[in-house]
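Summary of Year 1 activities. Much of the first year was spent building the evaluation harness for sequence design. The harness presents a backbone, in tokenized form, and records the residue chosen at every position. We chose the following record to illustrate the format because it has been used consistently in internal testing since the harness was completed.
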């Protein structure tokens, strides 16, 4: 257990109506408490209607991506085992597991995501996957997800909850043998941390997986950790489109962790950074990693996303 407690922040000279700036210190005894404050400072709560709209932009690939294949290799699900897939999205894990003959309960709070998954299941003739519309905060037992009801629980790229410890312990309660999750090693898969560093926003850099690891360790659980890395090519039709998208990323990443004046200065540096890092895309028109046509411009170096695969046996 980490023995040093979180130091109190010095009094600020900000006016009374200025927002409180939150800095994740990663030196706390109460890791879930700091996670809750970080989530408040970082982002709005998840909204199912937002993900319903986004579902139309997600592809339901009939063959596993390299990320999914690596996840499934690390999980080590045994023949005949049942699986609970929380935050299943469009079925990236549930579809290949169903193809392998596993009985899967696949839950998500977005009806749009479940519908896209249903299309993929029907297209592939998979009948062993049961979709359940359910959120992390719902009464899982009321939806048929009882304690000890699955051999293995998985939550792939889906834990963005306000109470991380509650989410982890819910999965632990349902699993009979093993729990496997992924969290970003940074603050978000949509955050390009090299850009945040380049424009002077180091305080916005996150280490989400450390919170899960320490919460589990403090409960006497000894989690194993591996890493899944993938590169993503972000493309744009114009300089202005690139700037606007990356400015939204900066705003989302910094939340109330960065004072407004500091954020505005960083956005000014973002334009300079883009001048040196945006180039013509020789693959414009070809399909990207999401099967969408690539646009005219791209960043000189692809964005690298690294996921921490955290698992523990019961």
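For this record, the design step produced the sequence shown next.
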């Amino acid at each position: 257990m980490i023995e040093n407690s979180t130091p109190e922040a010095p009094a600020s000279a900000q006016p009374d109506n200025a927002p409180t700036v939150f800095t994740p210190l990663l030196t706390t005894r109460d890791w879930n408490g700091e996670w809750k404050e970080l989530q408040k400072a970082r982002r709005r709560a998840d909204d199912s209607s937002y993900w319903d709209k986004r579902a139309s932009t997600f592809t339901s690939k009939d063959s596993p991506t390299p990320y999914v294949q690596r996840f499934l290799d690390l999980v080590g699900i045994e023949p005949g085992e049942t699986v609970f897939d929380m935050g299943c999205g469009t079925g990236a894990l549930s579809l290949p597991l169903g193809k392998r003959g596993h009985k899967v309960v696949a839950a998500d709070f977005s009806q749009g995501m479940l519908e896209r998954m249903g299309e993929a299941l029907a297209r592939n003739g998979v009948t062993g996957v049961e979709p359940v519309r359910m959120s992390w905060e719902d009464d899982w037992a009321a939806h048929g997800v009882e304690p000890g009801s699955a051999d293995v629980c998985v939550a792939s790229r889906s834990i963005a909850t306000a109470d991380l410890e509650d989410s982890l312990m819910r999965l632990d309660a349902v699993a009979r043998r093993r729990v496997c999750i992924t969290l970003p090693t940074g603050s978000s898969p949509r955050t390009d941390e090299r850009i945040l560093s380049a424009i002077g926003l180091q305080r916005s850099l996150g280490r989400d997986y450390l919170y899960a690891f320490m919460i589990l360790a403090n409960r006497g659980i000894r989690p194993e950790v591996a890493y899944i890395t993938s590169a993503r090519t972000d493309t744009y039709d114009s300089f202005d489109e690139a700037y606007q998208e990356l400015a939204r990323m900066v705003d989302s990443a910094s939340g109330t962790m960065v004072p407004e004046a500091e954020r505005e200065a960083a956005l000014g540096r973002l334009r300079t950074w883009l001048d040196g890092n945006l180039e013509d895309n020789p693959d414009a028109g070809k399909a990207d990693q999401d099967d969408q046509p690539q646009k005219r411009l791209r960043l000189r170096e692809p964005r690298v996303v690294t996921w921490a695969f955290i698992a523990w046996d019961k």
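Residues 260-277 form the longest helix (18 residues). Quantitative recovery figures across the full test set are reported in Table 2.
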